[in-house]
Specification:
Layout (H helix, E strand, L loop, with lengths): L10 E4 L5 E4 L8 E6 L4 H16 L5 E6 L3 H10 L6 E3 L5 H6 L6 E5 L5 E6 L1 E2 H15 L16 E2 L2
Length: 161
């Protein structure tokens, strides 16, 4: 998996909205969180409400892109089912971005700073990691940090991807 401190691999992928998204061109002015997922990943199903909460908590000053390891129609249906209101990019069938970032499991989350360096990377579901991402995004955006994954919400604190 891509490690913190390394340069983020550049890419261009189509979104389910018909647009193309490019790193670093489309994210030079702010940090970007990449979330690699598969529609068949139960751990992704558990993680997405918390990932969505990140976007709701910090609506501006950063980008959130979900990268589907599925065909466009499957990715579109998954996004609809899980309330994903930010860009969903399609990496199938060549998996060029997945190969470049090498996530060991899904979900995999890679936070890239505005300068194009990987600032934080994790995979699977861990509330501590989601809250760390929240702290980092808050610092980037100048917002007050919030807990997005409370310990007592009825979900496990960790689940491997």
């Amino acid at each position: 998996m891509t490690e913190a401190g390394t340069r983020a691999a550049p890419f261009t992928l189509p979104g389910i909205d018909g647009r193309h998204y490019s790193l670093p061109q489309d994210s030079q002015d702010c940090p970007t969180l990449l979330v690699f997922f598969k529609s068949t990943c139960g751990t992704c199903d558990l993680a997405f409400p918390y990932i969505n909460r990140l976007k709701d908590t910090y609506p501006e000053g950063w980008r959130l892109w979900a990268i589907a390891q599925d065909p466009p129609e499957t990715a579109r249906e998954y996004a609809r089912r899980h309330g994903i209101g930010y860009p969903v990019l399609v990496d199938a069938p060549a998996y060029q971005v997945s190969k470049a970032y090498d996530p060991p499991a899904t979900p995999a989350l890679v936070l890239i700073d505005a300068a194009g360096a990987v600032a934080y990377a994790t995979h699977g579901f861990a509330k501590d990691d989601l809250n760390e991402l929240s702290r980092r995004i808050a610092a980037y955006t100048g917002a007050e940090a919030r807990i997005v994954a409370p310990p007592d919400d009825g979900n496990p604190s960790f689940r491997p991807g």
